[in-house]
Amino acid sequence: MRLLIIHIQISDEDGNEDNVTFAQMFEEVQLYAAAFKRIGLQKGDRVACYMSNRREAIYAMLAAASIGAMFGGPLPFYGAKAVAAIMDIMKPKFLITVDRFQFNKDEIDILERLPEIVNGHDCIEKVIIIPTKEESKLKDISAVNNSCFLDDFLSGGKNADGSVPDLVFEQFPFDHPVFINFTSGTTGLPKGLVHSAGTFLPLLRDFGLHNNLDRTTVTLAMQPVGWNLWNLYVGNLMLGSSLLLYDGLPCFLSKTAFWDIMDKYKVTFAFIVTSIIDTFEKEEIVPAPDCKLEHLKMIAVGASPVKLQNVDFILQKVKPDVFVGCLYGNSILGKSGELVIATPTPSLPVCVWNDEGEAKMQETYLSKFP
């Protein structure tokens, strides 16, 4: 009998570890939603997220979705100018962010970027800052317009007697917008691709049927908000699958750190970008002899073309009986190709944000095969 179901496990480069049960997650979302409502979040508003791979992003997203607001934001690695450009497009009512984070042993100071990002954007009515260290709570944040720390924001969601209003998920149409995912902007200004809650239907198919994820499995999730993989892995919570949120980059802490973490938390499914697999092979980043990875069933590789030697490396140096899934179709076909779906599909964006006349939507998705 499984007495405790861990839905979110947390680890990071600072050495912090924690876990969150489904019931605890529900209580957090309930409080976040109440706090958002108290400061005026409504249907159709936007909540921007600018932070590393943290549990608070999941709480804020679910809370915003319960109200009918949209959620999204830039990658935490973007500098102030790039983030400000996305704020110009998104025009969020609220921004939830973090003071700092560590990535590949480098200290990233988000707090110092915030004045340039926030000031001048009158649309941002409140900036909610998550302090990752106690000393951060003593810092003067007055240079960031309309800012407060997370505890102050959450305390506003409580009733006078300390209780929290019930969590109510408002009911909306299938195509009601929930997410805004931004493109990289390499060919111009970033485009905001708007997805509805219906986008999760293909995820149930992919992760539930194809990958066999359920209440007994653990998914490694290292990608923060701003990368669409974050949206994919959050969807695994619908299946009861646990998430291991790793905040940072464990690959280079030591030769075995990445695999040690996979083994310690009994990871079942992991996505690893092709370039990281290349680095693992070049630097001989392989599991230690006593690291058995007994629970690991599938490694998905993608984001760029997957080579045969990538698959060979995983099977020969990581685990011989793990299923290696290629998420870059050209490698399987041996040539470029198009799978044309002429009828509506839930994974198609609802629209491109601020796309008057749907010109960008037509150009991006519907021009080659109308």
Shape: globular
Question: Between the first and last Cα atoms, what is the distance in angstroms?
Answer: 53 Å
Could you say which structural class the secondary elements and strand pairing correspond to? alpha/beta
Low-confidence residue ranges: 1-6
H/E order of the elements?
A: EEHEHEHEEEHEEHEEHEHEHEHEHEHEH
Which descriptors would you attach to this protein?
AMP-dep_synth/lig_dom; transmembrane helix; single chain; Acetoacetyl-CoA synthetase; 370 residues; eight-stranded mixed β-sheet; alpha/beta; AMP-binding_CS
Short summary:
The chain crosses the membrane at residues 57-78. The chain has 370 residues and is of the alpha/beta class.
Describe the structure.
GO terms for molecular function: acetoacetate-CoA ligase activity. This is Acetoacetyl-CoA synthetase. The protein is globular, with a radius of gyration of 21 Å. The longest helix has 17 residues. It contains 12 helices and 17 strands. 30% of the residues lie in helices and 21% in strands.
